Fold:
Amino acid sequence: MTQQLLVYVPPHPLIKHWLAVARDVATPSVLFRSAITELGRWLTYEAARDWLPTLETKVQSPLDICPATLINPEIPVAVVPILRAGLGLLEGAQTLLPLASIYHLGLVRNEETLEPVCYLNKLPEKFDPQTRVLITDPMLATGGSIMAAMAELVKRGVDPALTRIVCVVAAPPALQKLNAAYPGLIVYTATIDATLNSNGYIVPGLGDAGDRIFGT
Ligand code: PRP
Ligand code: URA
Structure:
Protein backbone atom coordinates (compact mmCIF):
# COMPACT_ATOMS: atom_id res chain seq x y z
CA MET A 1 0.00 0.00 0.00
CA THR A 2 1.44 3.44 -0.91
CA GLN A 3 1.59 5.96 1.92
CA GLN A 4 -0.32 9.22 1.65
CA LEU A 5 -0.30 12.53 3.45
CA LEU A 6 -2.86 12.40 6.28
CA VAL A 7 -4.96 15.51 6.81
CA TYR A 8 -7.13 15.65 9.94
CA VAL A 9 -9.93 18.16 10.38
CA PRO A 10 -10.94 17.42 13.98
CA PRO A 11 -14.75 17.66 14.32
CA HIS A 12 -14.59 19.63 17.56
CA PRO A 13 -17.09 22.39 18.49
CA LEU A 14 -14.36 24.61 19.96
CA ILE A 15 -12.30 24.36 16.77
CA LYS A 16 -15.38 25.19 14.68
CA HIS A 17 -16.25 28.10 16.94
CA TRP A 18 -12.82 29.75 16.89
CA LEU A 19 -12.53 29.19 13.13
CA ALA A 20 -15.84 31.05 12.64
CA VAL A 21 -14.59 33.92 14.83
CA ALA A 22 -11.32 34.06 12.87
CA ARG A 23 -13.08 34.03 9.50
CA ASP A 24 -15.42 36.90 10.42
CA VAL A 25 -14.17 40.12 8.80
CA ALA A 26 -15.75 42.08 11.70
CA THR A 27 -13.52 40.35 14.30
CA PRO A 28 -11.06 42.91 15.69
CA SER A 29 -7.36 42.09 15.92
CA VAL A 30 -7.37 41.44 19.67
CA LEU A 31 -10.13 38.81 19.33
CA PHE A 32 -8.62 37.39 16.14
CA ARG A 33 -5.39 36.80 18.06
CA SER A 34 -7.32 34.98 20.81
CA ALA A 35 -9.09 32.85 18.20
CA ILE A 36 -5.76 31.81 16.66
CA THR A 37 -4.32 31.07 20.13
CA GLU A 38 -7.32 28.86 20.92
CA LEU A 39 -7.02 27.07 17.57
CA GLY A 40 -3.33 26.50 18.32
CA ARG A 41 -4.26 24.98 21.67
CA TRP A 42 -6.99 22.62 20.43
CA LEU A 43 -5.27 21.54 17.21
CA THR A 44 -2.07 20.84 19.16
CA TYR A 45 -4.11 18.82 21.65
CA GLU A 46 -5.38 16.71 18.75
CA ALA A 47 -1.94 16.43 17.14
CA ALA A 48 -0.28 15.38 20.40
CA ARG A 49 -2.50 12.31 20.82
CA ASP A 50 -0.28 9.81 18.98
CA TRP A 51 2.81 12.00 18.63
CA LEU A 52 4.04 12.93 22.10
CA PRO A 53 6.54 10.29 23.30
CA THR A 54 5.51 8.47 26.47
CA LEU A 55 7.07 5.95 28.80
CA GLU A 56 5.44 3.31 30.92
CA THR A 57 6.37 3.28 34.60
CA LYS A 58 4.90 2.78 38.07
CA VAL A 59 3.99 5.34 40.71
CA GLN A 60 3.27 4.96 44.37
CA SER A 61 -0.17 6.44 45.10
CA PRO A 62 -1.13 7.10 48.75
CA LEU A 63 -2.73 3.63 48.72
CA ASP A 64 -0.80 1.38 46.33
CA ILE A 65 1.75 1.10 43.55
CA CYS A 66 0.07 1.44 40.15
CA PRO A 67 1.04 1.50 36.46
CA ALA A 68 1.52 5.00 35.05
CA THR A 69 2.28 6.71 31.73
CA LEU A 70 4.48 9.80 31.66
CA ILE A 71 5.73 12.08 28.86
CA ASN A 72 9.21 10.75 28.04
CA PRO A 73 11.67 13.54 28.91
CA GLU A 74 14.52 11.82 27.00
CA ILE A 75 13.00 12.39 23.57
CA PRO A 76 13.27 15.96 22.27
CA VAL A 77 10.12 17.84 21.31
CA ALA A 78 10.42 20.95 19.13
CA VAL A 79 7.98 23.54 17.87
CA VAL A 80 8.82 25.49 14.72
CA PRO A 81 6.59 28.55 14.29
CA ILE A 82 6.72 30.05 10.81
CA LEU A 83 6.88 33.81 11.33
CA ARG A 84 5.02 35.90 11.60
CA ALA A 85 1.60 34.26 11.64
CA GLY A 86 2.80 30.95 13.14
CA LEU A 87 3.53 32.85 16.37
CA GLY A 88 -0.21 33.16 16.94
CA LEU A 89 -0.63 29.37 17.01
CA LEU A 90 2.54 28.93 19.06
CA GLU A 91 1.01 30.63 22.08
CA GLY A 92 -1.69 27.96 22.41
CA ALA A 93 0.66 25.11 21.49
CA GLN A 94 3.14 26.14 24.17
CA THR A 95 0.59 25.84 26.95
CA LEU A 96 0.40 22.10 26.12
CA LEU A 97 4.10 21.62 25.35
CA PRO A 98 5.81 23.77 27.99
CA LEU A 99 9.13 21.91 27.75
CA ALA A 100 9.41 21.96 23.94
CA SER A 101 12.30 23.85 22.33
CA ILE A 102 11.09 26.64 20.06
CA TYR A 103 12.99 27.22 16.80
CA HIS A 104 11.81 30.30 14.88
CA LEU A 105 11.74 30.34 11.10
CA GLY A 106 10.92 33.65 9.41
CA LEU A 107 9.45 33.34 5.92
CA VAL A 108 7.60 35.96 3.93
CA ARG A 109 5.96 35.56 0.53
CA ASN A 110 7.08 37.86 -2.22
CA GLU A 111 3.77 39.55 -3.10
CA GLU A 112 4.38 39.26 -6.86
CA THR A 113 6.02 35.85 -7.30
CA LEU A 114 4.38 34.30 -4.16
CA GLU A 115 7.76 32.62 -3.54
CA PRO A 116 8.84 32.50 0.13
CA VAL A 117 11.89 34.48 1.23
CA CYS A 118 13.69 33.41 4.42
CA TYR A 119 14.70 36.31 6.69
CA LEU A 120 15.34 34.42 9.96
CA ASN A 121 16.49 30.86 10.58
CA LYS A 122 17.02 29.80 14.18
CA LEU A 123 17.00 26.05 13.43
CA PRO A 124 19.84 24.02 14.92
CA GLU A 125 22.41 22.60 12.50
CA LYS A 126 21.27 19.05 13.30
CA PHE A 127 18.20 17.62 15.05
CA ASP A 128 18.29 14.39 17.04
CA PRO A 129 16.61 11.94 14.59
CA GLN A 130 14.01 11.05 17.28
CA THR A 131 12.86 14.66 17.66
CA ARG A 132 9.13 15.22 17.50
CA VAL A 133 8.60 18.41 15.48
CA LEU A 134 5.41 20.47 15.39
CA ILE A 135 5.27 23.20 12.74
CA THR A 136 2.80 26.02 13.27
CA ASP A 137 1.56 28.16 10.38
CA PRO A 138 -2.11 29.15 10.10
CA MET A 139 -2.22 29.29 6.29
CA LEU A 140 -1.12 26.64 3.77
CA ALA A 141 -1.93 28.34 0.47
CA THR A 142 0.30 27.77 -2.57
CA GLY A 143 2.44 25.60 -0.27
CA GLY A 144 5.64 27.50 -1.01
CA SER A 145 6.27 28.44 2.63
CA ILE A 146 5.52 25.05 4.18
CA MET A 147 7.60 23.27 1.53
CA ALA A 148 10.52 25.61 2.23
CA ALA A 149 10.15 24.95 5.97
CA MET A 150 10.02 21.17 5.47
CA ALA A 151 13.12 21.25 3.25
CA GLU A 152 15.09 23.13 5.95
CA LEU A 153 13.97 20.64 8.60
CA VAL A 154 14.63 17.46 6.61
CA LYS A 155 18.06 18.80 5.62
CA ARG A 156 18.81 18.96 9.35
CA GLY A 157 17.79 15.37 10.09
CA VAL A 158 14.09 15.73 10.95
CA ASP A 159 11.97 12.65 10.18
CA PRO A 160 8.75 13.69 8.33
CA ALA A 161 6.95 10.74 9.95
CA LEU A 162 7.64 12.30 13.39
CA THR A 163 6.51 15.75 12.20
CA ARG A 164 3.07 17.32 12.58
CA ILE A 165 1.82 20.49 10.93
CA VAL A 166 -0.77 22.55 12.79
CA CYS A 167 -2.54 25.09 10.61
CA VAL A 168 -5.95 26.77 10.45
CA VAL A 169 -6.81 26.86 6.74
CA ALA A 170 -5.26 24.45 4.24
CA ALA A 171 -5.73 24.73 0.47
CA PRO A 172 -5.37 21.97 -2.13
CA PRO A 173 -2.17 23.26 -3.84
CA ALA A 174 -0.25 23.09 -0.54
CA LEU A 175 -1.67 19.69 0.39
CA GLN A 176 -0.85 18.28 -3.06
CA LYS A 177 2.78 19.44 -2.80
CA LEU A 178 3.17 18.00 0.71
CA ASN A 179 1.60 14.71 -0.37
CA ALA A 180 3.97 14.36 -3.31
CA ALA A 181 7.09 15.10 -1.25
CA TYR A 182 6.29 13.80 2.27
CA PRO A 183 3.71 11.00 2.13
CA GLY A 184 4.25 10.03 5.82
CA LEU A 185 3.48 13.51 7.13
CA ILE A 186 0.35 14.44 9.13
CA VAL A 187 -1.46 17.79 8.99
CA TYR A 188 -4.01 19.04 11.55
CA THR A 189 -6.18 21.85 10.27
CA ALA A 190 -9.43 23.55 11.25
CA THR A 191 -10.63 23.47 7.63
CA ILE A 192 -9.72 22.74 4.03
CA ASP A 193 -10.83 25.54 1.69
CA ALA A 194 -11.29 24.90 -1.99
CA THR A 195 -9.59 27.72 -3.86
CA LEU A 196 -6.99 30.46 -4.04
CA ASN A 197 -7.65 33.83 -5.70
CA SER A 198 -5.32 35.40 -8.27
CA ASN A 199 -3.26 37.00 -5.46
CA GLY A 200 -2.62 33.64 -3.81
CA TYR A 201 -5.11 34.22 -0.96
CA ILE A 202 -7.27 31.34 0.23
CA VAL A 203 -11.01 31.80 -0.46
CA PRO A 204 -13.00 32.07 1.76
CA GLY A 205 -9.97 31.74 4.09
CA LEU A 206 -9.56 34.39 6.74
CA GLY A 207 -7.56 37.07 4.95
CA ASP A 208 -3.97 37.95 5.81
CA ALA A 209 -3.39 36.02 9.01
CA GLY A 210 -0.18 37.85 9.99
CA ASP A 211 -1.71 41.29 9.49
CA ARG A 212 -4.83 40.36 11.45
CA ILE A 213 -2.86 38.82 14.35
CA PHE A 214 -0.54 41.80 14.68
CA GLY A 215 -2.95 44.56 13.65
CA THR A 216 -0.81 45.76 10.73
C1 PRP B 1 1.52 33.67 5.13
C2 PRP B 1 1.20 32.46 5.98
C3 PRP B 1 2.10 31.39 5.42
C4 PRP B 1 2.16 31.76 3.95
C5 PRP B 1 1.28 30.81 3.19
O1 PRP B 1 2.68 34.29 5.55
O2 PRP B 1 1.38 32.67 7.35
O3 PRP B 1 3.39 31.37 5.97
O4 PRP B 1 1.66 33.10 3.83
O5 PRP B 1 1.34 31.04 1.83
P1 PRP B 1 1.98 30.00 0.81
O6 PRP B 1 1.44 28.66 1.15
O7 PRP B 1 1.48 30.50 -0.52
O8 PRP B 1 3.47 30.08 0.93
P2 PRP B 1 3.19 35.65 4.91
O9 PRP B 1 4.19 35.36 3.84
O10 PRP B 1 2.02 36.50 4.54
O11 PRP B 1 3.99 36.30 6.10
P3 PRP B 1 3.46 36.78 7.55
O12 PRP B 1 3.16 35.56 8.34
O13 PRP B 1 4.62 37.54 8.07
O14 PRP B 1 2.26 37.66 7.35
N1 URA C 1 -1.31 33.99 3.62
C1 URA C 1 -2.34 34.51 4.34
O1 URA C 1 -2.11 35.14 5.39
N2 URA C 1 -3.59 34.30 3.91
C2 URA C 1 -3.86 33.60 2.79
O2 URA C 1 -5.03 33.45 2.45
C3 URA C 1 -2.78 33.09 2.04
C4 URA C 1 -1.52 33.30 2.49
About this structure: The domain at 6-214 is CATH 3.40.50.2020 (Rossmann fold).
